[in-house]
Structure formats: C-alpha cells, structure tokens
Amino acid sequence: MNILIIDGQGGGIGRQLVEGLRAAGETRIFCVGTNALATSAMLKAGAMRAATGENAVLVACRSADVIAGPVGIVIADALLGEVTPAMAAAVAQSRARRVLIPVNHCDNFVVGIPAETTTAGLVSEAVREILRGREA
Questions:
Q1: Considering its fold, how many domains does the chain have in total?
Q2: Are the beta carbons of 113 and 104 closer than 8 angstroms?
C-alpha cells in the first residue's frame, strides 16, 4: 500500500501521521510538503521518501493508494494559500482513498467537529482508518 501524506505550514499534522503509521509498523510512507519546513518535519518523523511543492503533489497523487492530510489539501488556496488549485484538484481527482483530518482554520469550518476535539485524537483516528485499508 502506497501511503501519501500531504501537509503544509509547519507540517505538524503530517509529522503526527507519519509517527502514528511508523509506530504501527507501516513503512511505505511518501510525504509531500507544500513547503520545505513541512517536508522536513515529515522526514524527521520517519517518512520513507519526501518531496516539496506543487509538481511533487501532482506526480505523487498518481501512484498513491491512500492520501492523508488536513482537509485543506482538497481546498484551493487553503493553508494560507499554500495549496494551489492544481494541488487540490490532483488530490480530489486521484483514484486513491482519501483520509482527511478536519481542521477549522483559514476560514474553512467543518460543521460537526466538537471544539474540544484534539488534533492528536483526530490523527489517531486517521491512522486507524489508513491501516484499516491495509486489511482489505
């Protein structure tokens, strides 16, 4: 299973996803950061390979079985403008299964997510969902 994690800004959510997947024994983790800082954070967490930028997202989405990251990766101009329209389209149009973590930032609000929900709890749930696909 080829797992692609996409994140931007500081890469905190992507880092947590990589750490959770590595702890579960998953090794085929490829990461793309929308900037070098995010890419670096995911590499330090144990990603197998990583790249940075728009073209890397477009190429990686073609071969991914699962794409994971904050919900903003499917919204053009999200993550303070780091997600380009082409990136959002590549993620949305990929044949991969998408596991999106709801994050209420940058004027995007996911209704139904309790305010007290922690990012760590959401990431743990996302890791379980990604690994569930490994059993299929």
A1: 1
A2: yes
* Domain CATH for 49: 3.40.50.1220
CA distances from 65 to 1, 4, 36, 110, 114 (A): 6, 8, 24, 25, 29
Show the domain range for 122. 3-135
Its sign, for the CA torsion 23, 29, 34, 38, is positive
What does the H/E/C string look like for the chain?
CCEEEEECCCCHHHHHHHHHHHHCCCCCEEEEECCHHHHHHHHHCCCCEEEECHHHHHHHHHHCCEEEEEHHHHCCCHHHHCCCHHHHHHHHHCCCEEEEECCCECCECCCCCCCCCCHHHHHHHHHHHHHHHHHC
Low-confidence ranges of the chain (pLDDT < 50): none
Which contacts qualify for 117-121: CB closer than 8 Å, 24 or more apart? 119/12, 119/13, 119/16, 120/16
- Per-residue pLDDT tens for 16-52? 999 999 999 998 999 999 999 999 999 999 999 999 9
